[in-house]
Amino acid sequence: MSVRNRLGALVLALFLVGPAAAQAPAPPVDPDAVLVEELVVVGREPGPAWWRVVDADTTVYVMGVPSLAPKRMEWDRMVFERRLAGANAVILPFVNVRAKGLGTVGSAFNLMRLRSGGPYEEKLDPATRARFAAVRTRLGQPARRYATGNPLAAGVQLAIDYRDRSQLTNMDPAKLVKLLAGRAGVPVVEKSYDLAPQLGGILRTPPAVGRICFDEVLAQAEAGPGVTLQAAKAWAQGDVIGALDNERTYERCLATISGGRSYDERMKADQAAAIEQALQRPGHAIALVPLRPLLAQGGVLDRLQAKGYDVKTPGEL
């Protein structure tokens, strides 16, 4: 994995976060926990569920995609390929982060600060140290892999290693969709965000809050990928409720990270704006949006409905 991709993987989950607690950290709260119930409808067509945002002369077909899924996951592409034909654009999930311009130096400095200190497990109580050592050993990682005094940084690295070893990714099916759009000559709309502020947010997060995240990730790694695999299977069958059962312990813990709420808000606002822009051109387009940010109160579809756009559910043909 390149340095850019590894830095990006370190903070991809920071798009679903909220402000740090001013005093004792509160239990993790998923910022996308409350859904717009009328939008949570099982699909009637083969394959994953689709929503539609329409105006007088344009339709944007919106596929809700998993926030975490098996790499190279199989799914019925018949409906997607039919809609790709003649599409004006394909809008991908706005979840990319990278070091930009002068931010590269700051990002590298922040990363070095996060990686300072001896193995994190030496700072844990004996019982948690034993659990952590067992998990990292199963993942094939040495103690020095987690050389940091920052519990949040240790948790993020553990999440990356667990997902890599379990063959899980937050980039599919968007990676495949981008490839197919390129082959079809359909323009792709993407957006990336600067990495440096997210790394700074990790550094500013109080240790007690970071420890919540570490414990959440450790428990998820111990449990294994069963919940995620089952949710991915449901997603591929258009079972929206089953797909929403995906493991989100990490997202819940990240809801307490310093400065994260603005990134979550910006991502949703930018994705909604991209769909709104696509509606200005007659014809049709495709958009991919992570399921919970798509369906949550204050999420992408909720924002578009508030602006007066007609949103149709997967249950409406």
Describe this structure in words.
With 317 residues, the protein is an alpha/beta fold. It has a domain of 216 residues. Helix content is 45%, strand content 12%. The chain is built from 14 helices and 10 strands. A 6-stranded mixed beta sheet has the order 7-4-9-2-1-10. It has a two-stranded antiparallel sheet with strand order 3-6. It is elongated and about 65 Å long. The N terminus is likely disordered.
Principal-axes geometry comes out as elongated
SS content category: alpha/beta
Q: Bin the strand percentage.
A: 5-15%
Number of helices: 14
From N to C, what is the helix and strand string?
A: HEEEHEEHHHEHEEHHHHHHEHHE
Q: What share of residues is helical?
A: 40-55%
The biggest sheet, with number of strands, parallel, antiparallel or mixed sense and barrel status, is:
6 strands, mixed
Counted beta strands = 10
Low-confidence stretches: 1-24, 105-110
Give the termini distance in whole angstroms. 42 Å
Mean pLDDT: 83
Main sheet: strand order = 7-4-9-2-1-10
Radius of gyration computed on alpha carbons:
20 Å
